């Protein structure tokens, strides 16, 4: 039974082409006319068509080709070069006349030859490859494919059914916008990081000179000051501690049209790239970083440190997406309880929704150290129309947004536009001073 079913299975792998139909039709018509008219010289004309078709069909392959797509580097950075290879195999001892391969290319992937079909010559028992080069223009997950292949055999008389390979998942990590904050953290949590704390302890940053007390180490004695004052004094240092940074991404709305790495950045592009830069900076210093997404769904990545957590952070950022329904309120489960009291909360938000402002105010009222990073920047407004009242809605929107920012600052939430390296130093300096004041008052 198995042997009987195998040929039928192989036969279904190929279908006749129009060339086979024409060859059979021409041979049959010539033979029929020869019989009806008695002109048997027409049989001689039909013989090449019949014999050639028969010989070609005898040498037909029994199995369809195999196809697979692979990438040299499945993990890329947006704007990076992409190298893809499509392998087409021939499991038959007889070669194919031609194999046509076509690859479905996603929106943000650019190949040198676009998504046009490619022709491959595959001999029997071999594997032929098609090398494609291109670029990935935007961060995110980009499924490359599926890939479809058609094999032409028996001198063009047969064509295989489409053979498909599954999609190749490509990951394009966001290009990091460099961020460097030289200021101390508001409060440090542990003793393992490289961040300078406001508290004294074991570290390399000089805090001052004070009198010797119980528990002070002898190696910290400052002999010059001690001899001058006739009392033993020790050098006091700031402890090197790790801080917990919470990067909160406001994904309620997307604004602007993304142009990829080569064009203008949308709000979501700026948000994701800034989050990657902030996380990279603090993780490199040994601090702990957590991520939160505020939008139609609430996503949370727990706080951790190290190189492994940095790669986990980049993976987490690939799935950031704006809320599907702009009128859908964020889940009620989101609140200040999701953020530790000693953490620095850096909220990346375009401040396009009153719910975002309310969320920031709630965090500030709960005693969290909040910094609002404006990812909208300078909004590009449409050109003024010739209509009399066309620019009034634009002005009202700008005034309303400025009013929201002013109200947040009254609640103690500093708002600063994202500008890359050093753009948040002044704000972090002010937050650190507020934290010192709270500690002294407590």
Automatic annotation (TrEMBL):
InterPro entries: DUF58. This is DUF58 domain-containing protein. Residues 209-373 form the DUF58 domain. Keywords: Membrane, Transmembrane, Transmembrane helix. It comes from Dactylosporangium sucinum. The chain crosses the membrane at residues 20-36. It comes from the Bacteria.
């Amino acid at each position: 039974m198995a042997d009987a079913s195998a040929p039928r299975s192989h036969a279904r792998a190929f279908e006749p082409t129009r060339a086979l139909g024409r060859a059979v039709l021409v041979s049959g018509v010539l033979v029929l006319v020869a019989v009806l008219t008695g002109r048997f010289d027409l049989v001689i004309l039909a013989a090449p068509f019949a014999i050639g078709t028969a010989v070609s069909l005898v040498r037909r392959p029994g199995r369809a080709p195999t196809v697979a797509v692979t990438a040299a580097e499945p993990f890329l950075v947006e704007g990076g070069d992409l190298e893809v290879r499509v392998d087409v195999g021939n499991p038959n001892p007889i070669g194919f006349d031609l194999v046509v391969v076509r690859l479905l290319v996603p929106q943000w992937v650019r190949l040198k030859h676009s998504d046009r079909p490619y022709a491959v010559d595959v001999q029997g028992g071999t594997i032929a490859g098609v090398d494609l080069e291109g670029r990935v223009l935007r961060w995110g997950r980009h499924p490359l494919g599926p890939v479809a292949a058609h094999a032409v055999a028996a001198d063009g008389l047969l064509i295989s059914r489409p053979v498909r390979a599954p999609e190749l998942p490509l990951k394009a990590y966001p290009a990091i916008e460099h961020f460097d904050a030289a200021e101390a953290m508001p409060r440090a949590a542990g003793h393992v990081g490289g961040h300078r704390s406001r508290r004294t302890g074991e570290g390399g940053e000089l805090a001052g000179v004070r009198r010797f007390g119980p528990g002070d180490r002898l190696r910290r004695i400052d002999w010059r000051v001690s001899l001058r004052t006739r009392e033993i004094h020790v050098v006091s240092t700031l402890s090197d501690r790790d801080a917990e940074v919470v990067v909160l991404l406001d994904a309620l709305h997307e604004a602007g049209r993304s142009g990829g790495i080569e064009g203008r950045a949308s709000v979501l592009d700026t948000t994701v790239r800034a989050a990657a830069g902030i996380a990279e900076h603090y993780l490199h210093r040994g601090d702990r970083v957590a991520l939160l997404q505020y939008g139609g769904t609430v996503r949370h990545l727990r706080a951790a440190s190290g190189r492994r957590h940095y790669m986990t952070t980049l993976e987490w950022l690939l799935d950031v997406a704006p809320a599907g329904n702009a009128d859908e309120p964020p889940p009620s489960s989101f609140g200040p309880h999701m953020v530790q009291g000693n953490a620095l909360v850096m909220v990346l938000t375009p401040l396009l929704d009153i719910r975002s402002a309310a969320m920031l105010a709630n965090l500030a009222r709960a005693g969290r150290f909040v910094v609002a990073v404006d990812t909208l920047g300078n909004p590009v407004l449409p050109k003024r129309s010739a209509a009399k009242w066309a620019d009034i809605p634009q002005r009202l929107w700008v005034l309303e947004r400025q009013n929201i920012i002013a109200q947040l600052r009254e609640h103690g939430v500093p708002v600063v536009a994202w500008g890359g390296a050093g753009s948040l130093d002044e704000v972090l300096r002010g937050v650190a001073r507020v934290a010192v004041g709270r500690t002294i008052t407590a």
